[in-house]
Amino acid sequence: MSVAELxxxxxxxxxxxxxxxxxxPSPIIADPTFLPxxxxxxxxxxxxxxxxxGIHHFTSRDGLEWDILEREPMLKPGSGxxxxxxxxxxxxxxxxxxxxxxxxxxxxLAGRENIGLALGTKARA
Length: 125
Description:
Blueprint lengths: L2 H5 L22 E6 L9 E7 L2 E7 L6 E2 L17 E9 L2 E9 L7 E8 L5
Antiparallel strand pairs: 1-2, 2-3, 3-4, 5-6, 6-7
């Protein structure tokens, strides 16, 4: 596909929206990033998004219907530099390693916002 063809695409909303609804008690699920099947060892889509509780991991066979892996966030606020929100993420595969970059704040309503990194090198048992 050429750049001109990409720019000429007509975008239509998927009739099944929203694909993923917020997880109670958080009113949001936002900033999705994903790995397509050709970049994952299991051939599934893997989507990561944040709620007010932290970062959640979803999988899908078709990129349209999503299952959450665990209700508990895989990465959540803690103390120190990531005491507040953990959000605004991006995931990339480089070789056999996975890099998940994210923002975190050292306070809930105010404070310094930093960029952190979680490395994925082995599948969870």
